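Our preliminary data section would be incomplete without showing what the modeling component actually yields. Below, a chain of 308 amino acids is followed by its predicted structure, encoded as tokens that our downstream tools consume directly.
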Amino acid sequence: MALSTKHLLGIKNLTPNDIELIFQTADNFKEVLKRPIKKVPTLRDTTIVNLFYENSTRTRISFELAEKRLGADTINFATSSSSVSKGETLIDTAQNILAMKVDMVVLRHSASGAPHFLSNHINAAIINAGDGTNEHPTQALLDAYSIREKHKSLKGKKVAIIGDIMHSRVALSNIYCLKKMGAEVTVVGPPTLIPKHIESLGVQVTYNLKEALDWCDVANILRIQLERQNMPLFSSLREYALFYGVNKSLLDSLKKEITIMHPGPINRGVELSSDAADSHHSLILQQVENGVAIRMAVLYLLSGKQEV
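Predicted structure:
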């Protein structure tokens, strides 16, 4: 089986069958990651460049590890120490890299649509590792995969996405992914951080955190994206934590057990307290572990190779 697309530009471009195929392939790679020798030669002779125009720790390390576990040759491109700092354009950078016979490009960029632009101009598989406020598809895939692993299925599951919905590419990709796989979604946050007309994506909106937690099976808690906000959208982080911060006492007050998630990095004491993040409710470390398997699956499926 193969994906219906040659790139991973966003969840919006995937079918439910594509997502299920990625999950099934990740299941196989999770078995590989449990072996004493955690490498397979599947992408031997494949060259992948990690082209990150924005700072990243978790996503970049996760992709690098996935590539090395698959036996690929990896090039890490840091824009701060490259010709980009001298004004070189994205298209020129990519074409110069491709002249070195690169097969795949993992791109993170501050401009929404950058991976889509690149896919129209170069002959290599493009994987979107986050573009502006648009999408972050592999994060959504690993989030949904982690819910599926914990709750056996996504169909009918109630997921609350809490926090800075307006500036979060993780939120948008999660909404697309969860809705395609049959989950119900409610977004939660201050009115200033909820985009207008988001209900058109088939989600519910509430500004009441307790109401959302009482409703959901899973709460995916997002970081406040201060670096993307060009004006204050709430009075203070302390006020935000008071009304929208999730802590252990709040979780203990619920009439049922729920699962909490966070894509990282966590602003501890703001959107999530340490006692909640480190509690038995948390899937955060499982998300990190599953990220490697999901990214291995995506790289493998886009490479066109036929053996695991």
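The CA atoms of residues 74 and 107 lie 13 Å apart. The beta strands are 47-52, 73-78, 104-109, 125-131, 158-162, 184-188, 204-206, 218-221, 259-261. Preliminary results of this kind motivate Aim 1 of the renewal.
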